[in-house]
Write a structure and sequence with these properties.
This protein has five helices and nine strands, in the order H-H-H-H-H-E-E-E-E-E-E-E-E-E. With 185 residues, it is α+β, with helices and mostly antiparallel strands.
Length: 185
Amino acid sequence: MAADEIPIGRSLREARRRRGLTLKAVAQEAGVTESFLSQVERDIASPSIATLRRIAVALGTTIGTLLDSAGPHGRLVRRGKRRVLGYAGLGARDEFLTDGPNARLQVIESFIEPGGGTGPEAYAHESDEECLIVLEGCLELWVGDEHYRLDAGDAIRYSSRVAHRNRNPGPGSARVLFVLTPPSF
């Protein structure tokens, strides 16, 4: 984990302990192994977004609340002070350009390596609507049964409540802007 990345593991562990839940109980509810959850809590393993969402639901919270509890945020977000969430093994990193889940809008800049993305499992979340803009490279996007290939300059709007996932087919890296309303990460 890079020095500027959010220590999501600590937030997960603190949320689990506050609720008096065991690793086993949360792991079973989230559909992951107890050892994997333990590794995530120690920031040794990084879950896919879909798995992180299932863990948050098992804890009775949202990804946004977990991320928000990981550090202080203000309305102005300086380039060097962005919250950063890396997804080890998924070839992706999110930088949060806005200040957390208590606003009405959230903007995330994602950097996705070739072959990287949200993972093979589609997920839905609490935001109503999402806009994705490819700034550099290209991205494949699946929303429900629909499949899109977006190149630099392309944009798409879709319901966040419909299961979706993405992947960078390469050959180069992709830089993508996600705008969500309301925030859920």
